[in-house]
């Protein structure tokens, strides 16, 4: 028998570079008039880009342009950010938090409670509970699924403290945080956990065909629990919701021509050994987070990237390799990555009428609300609900059972049954990002011309040189 020997590597060695050269974060409000620049200069590791974007998006900041460079084991990233109203960041406490939090992402333990207290509020995705038992479910979507799950939880004596649900391509995924309805706190007893899981599995399996993919999982509170929205992406990816995704590949859209579908192209930069991934889609909040989630969880390393918005559209260009150092070689690899990027972008897109709820928190609230939806023929396409003390707030996007717009008369009946003051129709349109400096030229006819090959990538070095001038030299 051949014996293989491997050298011993001290675990402390991995963080040696980080301890020698700790990250530096600069928040610059003077360089540009319409936004704040967040500049990060640090040693690099796989996943750090996603963690930085996660910090900014969890603060409800809008990233409408960014320049990424992380070759040679070092990174220099620049993010153009504003608040949700399009204003610069002027709150000194917020600026201090961003600086400390971005440095803290270097430690795998995540952001500490001490950092959160300096901002005087807990920073996390909306409608998420980190102190309770989490139910993760994925499977075939169907009208009434959320109602059946929440009703089962109520019958089992579980109080829902937060819930987030996405649907896409006929599949559904949700993460529901629950506590013991009688004793309070997370459900920890193994026997009780097994009882809850068995009941929920029977609910999810009820309308599935034999062998059809589905999953139900209960997890206890943990400090290292995966970011909730990233976990939703992972659940839907594992459920293969991307298999039906198709981008716009019509020849008539070669020059964009106002097309708002998602375009993904993957080319090879043989000179440097990169695969160049270009994504053009409608702009929205958290678009960068969703795209980087897909690339990171599929084990692709982003070496350089430029992201910018043009009116209501966004351009993203990534120079990537696989984690093993290779570029995308086969057509099947490229096809799968294309599908997965389209899926990551589409999952968060809201379909249907948005209904906002704000009411007294009580046991079985989610079961009551979703039951009314189901009895009136409404189907939930996306949901977020959470509790804050004695109040419960959230949003539901609903369609009719066929996926069409909801009849206004039905909406009014639902409002009256739930409570006219508790449930309101949100008529505001989605936020459209501001137009940034143009990265795409227009012809005299008004049509967008095709970009030169790797056009955004060619701008990377000039922008980094201009925008990161006050990083200073790195001492060795």
Summarize the SSE layout with pairings.
Elements: H1 16-20, E1 24-28, E2 36-43, H2 48-58, E3 62-69, E4 74-82, H3 92-104, H4 113-118, E5 133-140, H5 145-155, E6 158-168, E7 171-180, H6 190-205, E8 215-219, H7 228-238, E9 263-269, E10 274-282, H8 287-297, E11 300-310, E12 313-322, H9 331-347, E13 353-360, H10 365-375, E14 378-388, E15 391-400, H11 408-418, E16 423-425, H12 455-467
Antiparallel strand pairs: 1-2, 2-4, 3-4, 3-11, 5-7, 5-8, 6-7, 6-14, 9-10, 10-12, 11-12, 13-15, 13-16, 14-15
Q: Largest beta sheet, briefly? A: 8 strands, antiparallel
Approximate shape: globular
The low-confidence runs, each spanning 5 or more residues with pLDDT under 50, are 1-5, 250-255, 429-476
> Helix amount, in percent?
25-40%
What is the count of DSSP helices, taking H or I runs of 4+ residues? 12
Give the strand order, joined by hyphens, for the main sheet. Answer: 1-2-4-3-11-12-10-9
The helix-strand sequence is HEEHEEHHEHEEHEHEEHEEHEHEEHEH
Radius of gyration equals 24 Å
Please identify the structural class as seen in this structure: alpha+beta
SS elements, strand count: 16
Q: Output mean pLDDT.
A: 81
Beta-strand residue fraction = 25-35%
Distance from N terminus to C terminus (CA atoms, Å) equals 46 Å
């Amino acid at each position: 028998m051949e014996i293989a020997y491997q050298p011993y590597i001290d675990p402390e060695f991995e963080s040696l570079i980080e301890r020698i050269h700790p990250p530096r974060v600069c928040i610059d409000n003077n360089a540009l008039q319409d936004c704040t620049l967040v500049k990060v200069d640090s040693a690099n590791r796989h996943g750090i880009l996603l963690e930085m974007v996660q910090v900014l998006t969890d603060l409800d900041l809008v990233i409408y342009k960014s320049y990424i460079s992380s070759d040679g084991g070092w990174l220099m990233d620049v993010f153009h950010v504003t608040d949700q109203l399009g204003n610069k960041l002027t709150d000194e406490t917020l600026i201090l938090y961003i600086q400390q939090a971005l440095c803290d992402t270097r430690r795998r333990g995540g952001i500490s409670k001490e950092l959160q207290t300096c901002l005087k509020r807990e920073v996390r995705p909306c409608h998420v509970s980190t102190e309770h038992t989490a139910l993760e479910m994925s499977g075939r979507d169907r009208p009434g699924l959320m109602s059946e799950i929440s009703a089962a939880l109520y019958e089992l004596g579980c109080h829902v403290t937060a819930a987030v649900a996405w649907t896409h391509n006929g599949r559904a995924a949700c993460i529901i945080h629950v506590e013991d309805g009688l004793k309070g706190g997370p459900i920890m007893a193994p026997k009780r956990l097994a009882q809850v899981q068995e009941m929920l599995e029977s609910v999810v399996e009820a309308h599935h065909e034999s062998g059809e993919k589905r999953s139900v999982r209960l997890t206890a509170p943990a400090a290292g629990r995966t970011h909730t929205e990233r976990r939703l992406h992972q659940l839907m990816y594992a459920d293969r919701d991307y298999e039906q995704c198709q981008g716009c590949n019509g020849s008539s859209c070669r020059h964009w021509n106002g097309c708002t579908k998602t375009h993904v192209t993957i080319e090879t930069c043989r000179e440097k050994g990169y695969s160049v991934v270009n994504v053009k889609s409608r702009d929205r909040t958290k678009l960068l987070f969703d795209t980087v989630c897909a690339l990171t969880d599929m084990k692709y390393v982003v070496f350089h990237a430029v992201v910018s918005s043009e009116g209501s559209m966004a351009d993203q260009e990534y120079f990537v390799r696989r984690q093993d150092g290779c570029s995308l070689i086969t057509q099947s690899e490229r096809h799968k990555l294309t599908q997965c990027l389209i899926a990551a972008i589409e999952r968060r897109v809201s379909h249907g009428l948005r209904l906002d709820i704000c009411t007294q928190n009580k046991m079985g609230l989610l079961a009551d609300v979703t039951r009314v939806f189901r009895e009136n023929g409404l189907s939930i396409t996306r949901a977020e609900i959470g509790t804050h003390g004695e109040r419960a707030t959230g949003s539901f996007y609903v369609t009719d059972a066929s996926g069409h717009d909801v009849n206004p008369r039905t909406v009014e009946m639902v409002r009256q049954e739930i409570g006219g003051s508790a449930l309101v129709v949100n008529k505001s349109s989605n936020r459209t990002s501001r137009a940034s400096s143009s990265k795409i030229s227009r012809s005299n006819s008004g049509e967008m011309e095709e970009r030169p090959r790797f056009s955004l990538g060619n701008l990377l070095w000039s922008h980094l040189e201009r925008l990161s001038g006050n990083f200073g030299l790195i001492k060795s």
